[in-house]
Amino acid sequence: MRLVSIIKNVKGDKAIWGVVILLAVFSLLAVYSSTGTLAYRYKQGNTEFYMLKHLGILFFGLVLMYLAHKVHFNWYGKFAFAVLVIVIPLLAYTLFFGTRVNEASRWATLPLINLSFQPSDFAKLAILIYLARVLGKNQDYVKDFKFNLVFIIIPVLVIVMLILPANFSTAVILYASCLIIMFIGRVKPLHLIGLIGVSVAAIGILVLLLWAYPEYSRIQTWKNRIENHFGDNPDGKYQSDQAKIAIANGGVIGKQPGNSVQKNFLPQPYSDFIFAIIIEEYGLIGGSVMVLLYLILLFRGASIATRTESKFGAFLTFGLAFSLVLQAMINMAVAVGMIPVTGQPLPLVSMGGTSLWFTSISIGIILSVSRSLETETKTDEQYVEV
What we know:
Elements: H1 2-8, H2 14-34, H3 36-42, H4 48-70, H5 74-78, H6 80-97, E1 99-101, E2 104-110, E3 115-117, H7 119-137, H8 145-163, H9 168-184, H10 189-212, H11 219-230, H12 238-250, H13 274-307, H14 311-335, H15 354-381
Antiparallel strand pairs: 1-2, 2-3
Helix pairs in contact: 2-4, 2-13, 4-15, 6-7, 6-8, 7-8, 7-9, 7-14, 8-9, 8-10, 9-14, 12-13, 13-14, 13-15, 14-15
């Protein structure tokens, strides 16, 4: 009875809920299949260990999504500035003193509970909420350059530049999402062009600084990935070649669940290259379904944004949906060899922890906006004359 009560209290866009459930199912099947080698290496062949762990993470993510959708989206805007003030020093601390993984300081550890997470995931959500709030509440000032500089351009540049040294792809996704929000938020195109120009100059200065201080630099990593992608060195193309083999072996209908061979050769088949494993096991049909699910998420986000009367809700919904789908498309593009390796997980599908939880919260906020639309519709129906 308790479960039935919870289901009845689930509101919001049903198509998005459907996308979430289908992605979660894909995720469980793909993670279970792709972690076999990991299980034999570290867990004495206990292949259920990582699947059950991921199931717990997914379940908690759904709980966070449910709780986030129950909170009216306006409340997120009320704390946007305060959260941003917390995020900036957290990013700075992580950049210089965070835990180094793959030659980059991306992780911070919370004291007492000893939980590690990437502050860039938190920052991405914080700046998108802040930006939507500022633009939604100040439409009369968005044409003013001084206002844009102080309240929009500087905060965006600060966040992006703090993320960039350790996580270039996340910085690009966030930057593109901010530009989209500013564009639909009616910021002058001339100001956007100026922002892009300043950004290019700032990146140039940052690259010079990183070159001068290699202990904080990922310049060589970026250079190697680009050279490996466009070059002819077979050793440098190992990951992308294995992903292409997995995709080629999948054919139209795939090898069926659990029958992937390349999961034994691909680095991180449960994360960065999970889309290749999905295509190998479910074929072109399964890969197309995955792409369609993310496009549905984007379409429904755009639909919610156009129907809500709240400017803040509209900017926030489309910005979050665009950011998640752009991340998904980048992950897929890496898997099929279109762009260099970025390290971006596939939202709601790749095995992960806090990254999946922040994704869940983002979708929960989108559902909160759509839930408010349902409430407004019901209120209007009460006053319809018959």
